[in-house]
Design a protein that fits this description.
This protein is of the alpha+beta class. The protein contains 18 helices and 37 strands. The N and C termini lie far apart (64 Å).
Length: 784
C-alpha cells in the first residue's frame, strides 16, 4: 500500500513539473517587446493579467501626452530612458505613475533629449525583461532594480535599492499620462505610516470630442511594506517637505527611505474606477495576503492557462513567437472596469451595479474598450472561438451603455463615448455574438438596441457615431460632403460609410431573421445593397456620390481621406463582406482575381502596408494596407472567387512578411495594433480559419486557408477540442492539396462554424504547388 502511495506521489510530482514546464514553454514564446516602436498607449503593458484593470508598464514619454488623443505614446523602443511606471493603460485612460529614485530630489520627469533634467533614468535593454505578467529593469542612474506584476485590479511594485540615505519613491498623481488628456483634479495623501490613497480625474481628447462634459476618474489605495522616514508633497514644479498630502493639478508625494544594499521595498496598489473605498476593497480581496513573488507566480499561471487554450506545434520558432505574442496582445487589451463587488462607473457620475447569477457570482464584467471598428475580422472571431466569456462581457457592457444612454458607443472609457472614427459597429458585433451562440443577455433589449443603431437617427448622440444614418436610409447611400464633417445630410467619409452601413444593415437583418422579425429583415436586407448605389460600373470601383446622385469629380482611386475613412477607393472597393459573390459578379470573376492578385503582388514590395515607414497611417494610400482595419478580410475573398489557392498563398505571405519578431518590425513597421486586433488576425489566419462575414451570417461559416503550424489543438469555448493538422507543411508547402473533416473527404474551402464547434479533426495535405481544383466547386455561401 505504501509503495502504491509512493508511486502515486511520484507520478503527481512528475505531472506537476511537466505542467509547469509546458506553461513556461508557452510563456517563453511571448515577446511583449515586439512592435514597441511607435506603439499605442495600451500596447506595452507586460505587468498585467488577461483583461486586467491593473496594467502596469514603464513609460518613456507618457508625460508628454498627445495632441490628437490617439498618437503613439507611453513606451517606445527607440527611447533610452524611463520616467515612471504607470498603473492604468486603456483607450483614453491613463494615470498614476510611480518612480523610484535616489540622490538629489527632482520633481519633474525631465525631457527625453536632456538626461539629468528630471528624475527619469537611463536604462539598457540588456537589463530589461518583459513577459506576460512580469516586467523588470535596472535604472542605471540610480542603480535600482524595478519589478512589476499584477492581479486583475491590483498593481505590485518591488524596488531593490543600493545602500543610500536618499532613496526615494515618487508618486506622480496629478499629471497627464498617455492618452489621459488634461487633469482636472487629483489628490493623494498618506493616511497612516504605510498606507496612501487618492484619485485623479482627467478629460481625454476623445471624451471632449464625442461626449463633452464627461470625465474619466481613477482611484487608488496603496500599501507599503516599509514606513518611509520622510514624506513630502509635490505640486506642479514645487516640493514641500514634511507634508503628507497634496491636491490639485500636479499633485504627488515623495517618500524618503534609508536603504541597505539590495534592500527591497514592495508596494501593493488597489485600483478602481468608482471610489477609493472600492480600490481598498479590491486590494483586500485580491491581494491582502499576496507578496510580490506569489503575485508574480499567480499572474504567470493565469497567462499560461489562457494561452494554452490554443496549442500549436512547429519547428518555426518565429511563427510560434508571432502566434503567442499575438494571442497575448488579444487577451491583454480591453480591460475590465468593474470592481470585485460589481460596481462600475456610469457616465453621469453615479455607480452602476452588476447583477449576480444563481450561484451568487457576477454574471459578467463591465469593460473599457477601444472601438470595435474592424474587430469582427479578428478579435470577435477569436473570442467566439475560445474566449466567449469576454465576447459576452463586451455585449453586456454595451447593453449597460444602451440602458443608460439610449445608444451604443463604439469605444468606451468609463461609460463615456470615445468613438475614435465617428461610426459604430457595435450592433454588428452583437449580431455576430448571437449568431455564434453567445446569448446570455436580454435578447429583446439587444435586438431593440441593434435595430436602433442601424435605423435610428432622431436625437442621436454624437458619441454614438453614424450621424449620417438618416441620409443612408433615405437615399440608400451617404452623400459626399466637401467639408470635413458628418451630419444628417451626408459625410466627408461618405464612401466608406455607405459600405459600412450596408454591411452592418446586413448583420442586423440576419439577426432580425433569426428572431422572426420579417418586416425589419426586409427593410434592412434592402439597405445592405446600398454599396451598389456607389459602384461605378465603368471603373468597376466604388466611388462617392454627391447629393444629386452624380459621382464626385477629380476622382483618384488611391486618394486617402476623400470619401474614405483611413483608406481609399481601391482598398474599400472590396468592402462588401455581406455578399462577396455579388461584388465579384459586378467586377467579373477573372478581372476580380487578376486585380486582387496584382494588388497583393505589388503590396508585397511594401510589406503589405506602408513599407518601412514608421507611422500608423503609412499604408492608407497604398493598394492594400494590412496595418489598418478596412483591409483585413480582403486576402480571404479568393475563397469566394474560385481561387482558394490564392487565399492560401497570400494569407500565408502576410503572416510571414507583414508580421515580424522585432521591436520595430512587429505589426508592420510601427503600424496600429488596436488592442489586440492585428494580433488576433495573425492567430486566426495562422490557424487557417477565418470568416469574411465576421460571424454575422444566418448560419456562419469559417473559411479555410493555409495553416502555418503542423498541428494546432484548440480548446473551444464549449470545452470541446478542435485539431487542425497540416501534413507535409513547410515554408514552401503552403497550398492545400486535399482535405478531410473527421476522416471524410472535404472538397470545399469552408465549413459551417457550428460543425467545427462540435470538435473534431481537420486534416489538410499541403504542397508547394497549388491544387487549382480543390475548394472551387462549392464556394462559401454568399447569400443564405
Amino acid at each position: 500500500m505504501k509503495t502504491g502511495l509512493k508511486s502515486l506521489s511520484i507520478l503527481l510530482v512528475l505531472i506537476f513539473f511537466h505542467a509547469i514546464s509546458y506553461a513556461q514553454d508557452v510563456l517563453k514564446f511571448v515577446n511583449p517587446n515586439i512592435g514597441t516602436a511607435h506603439s499605442r498607449w495600451f500596447f506595452y503593458t507586460p505587468a498585467a493579467v488577461p483583461y486586467g484593470m491593473a496594467k502596469l508598464a514603464p513609460s518613456t514619454n507618457g508625460s508628454y501626452g498627445n495632441l490628437q488623443g490617439w498618437e503613439a505614446v507611453g513606451y517606445d523602443t527607440r527611447h533610452t530612458s524611463i520616467e515612471g511606471f504607470v498603473h492604468f493603460h486603456e483607450w483614453q485612460v491613463g494615470g498614476i505613475s510611480f518612480m523610484p529614485t535616489a540622490g538629489r530630489l527632482k520633481t519633474v520627469p525631465g525631457a527625453l533629449e536632456k538626461p539629468g533634467s528630471g528624475y527619469r533614468s537611463g536604462f539598457s535593454r540588456e537589463n530589461e525583461f518583459a513577459s506576460p505578467g512580469y516586467y523588470s529593469v535596472i535604472l542605471d542612474d540610480f542603480k535600482i532594480k524595478a519589478e512589476l506584476t499584477a492581479t486583475k485590479r491590483v498593481g505590485f511594485h518591488r524596488y531593490t535599492f543600493p545602500k543610500s540615505d536618499s532613496s526615494r519613491i515618487i508618486l506622480s498623481i496629478g499629471n497627464v499620462q498617455g492618452e489621459s488628456g488634461p487633469v482636472t483634479d487629483a489628490s493623494v495623501e498618506m493616511i497612516d505610516d504605510t498606507h496612501f490613497q487618492g484619485y485623479v480625474i482627467t478629460y481625454p481628447k476623445y471624451v471632449k470630442t464625442y461626449d463633452e462634459g464627461g470625465r474619466v476618474a481613477m482611484y487608488f489605495f496603496g500599501e507599503l511594506n516599509k514606513k518611509p522616514f520622510t514624506v513630502g508633497a509635490l505640486a506642479k514644479d514645487a516640493a514641500v517637505a514634511n507634508q503628507r498630502s497634496s491636491k490639485g493639478i500636479g499633485a504627488g508625494l515623495y517618500l524618503g527611505y534609508k536603504t541597505a544594499e539590495k534592500e527591497s521595498i514592495e508596494i501593493k496598489v488597489g485600483l478602481s474606477y468608482t471610489s477609493v473605498a472600492n480600490a481598498k476593497l479590491n486590494l483586500k480581496t485580491e491581494a491582502e495576503h499576496l507578496a510580490f513573488a506569489t503575485a508574480k507566480a499567480a499572474a504567470q499561471r493565469e497567462w499560461s492557462i489562457a494561452l494554452n487554450k490554443l496549442k500549436v506545434s512547429t519547428k518555426n520558432v518565429a511563427a510560434k513567437t508571432k502566434f503567442y505574442t499575438g494571442l497575448y496582445h488579444a487577451l491583454l487589451g480591453r480591460g475590465i472596469a468593474s470592481d470585485v463587488n460589481g460596481n462600475f462607473p456610469r457616465h453621469d457620475g453615479t455607480i452602476g451595479q452588476l447583477p449576480k447569477d444563481a450561484k451568487g457570482k457576477f454574471s459578467y464584467n463591465f469593460m473599457n474598450t477601444d472601438a470595435i471598428w474592424g474587430g469582427f475580422w479578428n478579435i470577435t472571431q477569436l473570442w467566439a472561438l475560445s474566449y466567449p466569456t469576454h465576447y459576452s462581457d463586451f455585449v453586456h457592457t454595451q447593453l449597460e451603455i444602451y440602458k443608460e444612454r439610449g445608444w451604443f458607443g463604439d469605444g468606451i472609457a468609463n461609460s463615456n463615448f470615445v468613438s475614435g472614427v465617428g461610426t459604430n459597429f457595435v450592433g454588428l458585433a452583437i449580431a455576430g455574438a448571437y449568431q455564434a451562440g453567445i446569448r446570455d443577455y436580454d435578447l429583446n433589449l439587444a435586438y431593440e438596441a441593434v435595430k436602433g443603431n442601424e435605423l435610428g437617427y432622431q436625437n442621436r448622440l454624437v458619441g454614438s457615431g453614424k450621424m449620417d444614418t438618416k441620409s443612408f436610409i433615405t437615399k440608400g447611400y451617404v452623400p459626399y460632403l466637401d467639408a470635413d464633417k458628418t451630419d444628417s445630410t451626408g459625410s466627408h467619409f461618405s464612401g466608406s460609410h455607405t459600405l459600412e452601413y450596408s454591411y452592418s444593415a446586413f448583420a442586423a437583418a440576419q439577426f432580425a431573421k433569426r428572431l422572426g422579425k420579417t418586416a425589419d429583415y426586409q427593410k434592412m436586407i434592402q439597405l445592405s445593397d446600398g454599396w451598389k448605389n456607389i459602384f461605378d460600373k465603368t471603373l468597376k470601383l466604388v466611388r462617392p456620390k454627391m447629393e444629386d446622385g452624380t459621382f464626385i469629380n477629380k476622382f483618384d482611386p488611391l486618394e486617402a481621406w476623400r470619401g474614405f475613412q483611413e483608406g481609399n477607393a481601391t482598398q474599400y472597393t472590396f468592402y462588401v463582406p455581406q455578399n462577396p459573390k455579388s461584388l465579384i459578379n459586378e467586377i467579373g470573376e477573372k478581372t476580380f482575381n487578376n486585380r486582387l492578385n496584382e494588388i497583393f503582388e505589388t503590396s508585397r514590395k511594401n510589406a503589405f502596408g506602408g513599407g518601412k515607414t514608421i507611422d500608423a497611417f503609412a499604408g492608407i494610400q497604398s493598394l492594400y494596407n494590412h496595418g489598418n482595419q478596412p483591409n483585413l478580410h480582403i486576402s480571404w475573398l479568393f475563397n469566394y472567387s474560385s481561387s482558394p489557392w490564392l487565399t492560401q498563398k497570400w494569407t500565408r505571405a502576410i503572416c510571414d512578411e507583414f508580421y515580424g519578431t522585432e521591436s520595430i518590425h512587429g505589426y508592420g513597421y510601427g503600424q496600429d495594433e488596436d488592442q489586440g486586433q492585428l494580433g488576433s488576425w495573425y492567430v486566426m489566419s495562422s490557424l487557417g480559419l477565418f470568416d469574411v462575414k465576421g460571424l454575422t451570417d444566418f448560419r456562419p461559416t469559417l473559411q479555410i486557408g493555409s495553416p502555418v503550424f503542423d498541428q494546432s489543438i484548440i480548446t473551444l469555448g464549449n470545452g470541446k477540442l478542435l485539431t487542425i493538422k497540416a501534413e507535409n507543411n513547410s515554408n514552401e508547402n503552403v497550398f492545400v492539396q486535399s482535405a478531410s473533416w473527421n476522416g471524410k473527404v472535404l472538397n470545399q474551402a469552408w465549413l459551417y462554424r457550428d460543425q467545427l464547434m462540435q470538435g473534431g479533426t481537420l486534416t489538410l495535405k499541403m504542397g508547394s504547388k497549388p491544387n487549382k481544383n480543390w475548394g472551387v466547386k462549392l464556394p462559401p455561401p454568399s447569400v443564405q
